[in-house]
Amino acid sequence: MTARYVIALDQGTTSSRAVLVDAQGRAVDAVQNPFAQIYPQPGWVEHAPSDILSSQLGALAELTVTHGLGPGDIAAIGIANQRETCVVWNRETGRPVGNAIVWQCRRTAPLIEAITRDAGAARAIADKTGLVPDAYFSASKIKWLLDNVPGARADARAGRLAFGTVDSWLVWTLTNGAVHATDPTNASRTLLYDIHRGCWDDDLLELFDIPASMLPEVRPSSGDFGVTANPAVVQGVPIRGVAGDQQSALFGQRCFTAGEAKNTYGTGCFLLMHTGGEACRSAHGLVTTLAASAPGAAGPEYALEGSVFTAGALVQWLRDELGLVDAAAETEALAESVPDTGGVYVVPAFTGLGAPHWDAEARGAILGLTRGTSRAQVVRAALEALAYQVRDLAVAMEADAGVPLRELNVDGGASANGFLMQFQSDILRTPLIRPQNTEATALGAAFLAGLSAGFWRDAEELRDLPFASDRFEPRMGEERRARLLDGWARAVGRTMTR
Questions:
Q1: Which of 1, 87, 350, 416 could in theory staple to 169 by disulfide, Cβ–Cβ 3.0 to 4.6 A?
Q2: Euclidean distance between the first and final Cα of the chain, in Å?
Q3: 345, 349, 354, 360 alpha-carbon torsion, rounded to 10°
Q4: What is the model's pTM?
């Protein structure tokens, strides 16, 4: 029997999805399961590892049962995952030592501050990993669990504990503990991986006091991650692709060569530009990270990345905490119902400001309110804030890469908002390309798995797949654009602590 599909597991921050992809790169069907967000203290964010598993394995099982799929129908499974989120579990029992610490969590900011008081340590982290030392990444989260869970450090030193980002936790569970592995894109988000030498770094492990025995094996993104053996899902299916969600989206947008870029509007916003075989060091607060590569790549491939911590989460806040809308889809019509924000700016620094500012202590604000400010204007200001933050990243990226952003591929939930996409194009002065199939993250995982399994021949075959897209061209006048950007810069300045 010839396999008809690849399945992508898209494990995100607020939900887990299983997506069925055919040979034309079409998302035939998808199952999505949300799961709980846990906030033990202000600035802390956790997930129950069991919730991650039940939501993701449940989505996979439902998808295969609905379509009557057996292992012969599925060429491979690919995994895209929320990055930096940290799970530590006991190798013998399979039980996590505690909840997963989520990428958004700020509890370890003091720990990072203490480590980086030593300028040499801070420089070594940046030089080896390409990252800005920050609580956002995994290393300090691992250390926190070892230091705060009774018995965890002793168990780790005895080799009984395993660490993984969410991809590793899923692979370990899907293979019934046979494979403890990750890929370079996820490894490069830990503050423990030398992206130039392509290996875990002993000096960084010592700096964070993390035993090397905890770490997963690093395998190619388009490679062999074992075979499903968990009785909760269809068994005997090869797992042949793994990538962090943003690198997966870059691959799914078919940005395979230097200068091509994409932005994903998810819980956060993530702008990535492929830089080819060059690890381009940022002078503007961006990070250098590894890109996912097709089989046969000449060597490691890199990307520049800028992250906005709060994007889709801002729309959720408008809905769930402020009650300004009943559904995210309402925001587009509300924003278009008013000609402007009336001078209102929303700076969504709920968990600090990411690139290019990197102010962990900044907090959100709504500025410019008057007695006449309407609900629609606040909603519009929130959507505009997403576009302003992406523009800040794009300016920094152009300066670092030394090439202009000629067009931007977009995806993610909020990319469906036509008002936001037009405003984004206007404020960037750059065309936006939105594929009508916006499953870029899932497609990237499917492409990586399918290439490894021989479902697709090579990257050129993927480029030739017939994807329809929408195009947004800039049309805002320069005077208005400059005035709006000046107001945004002043608003951000009001929220910063340094």
A1: 87
A2: 62
A3: 140
A4: 0.86
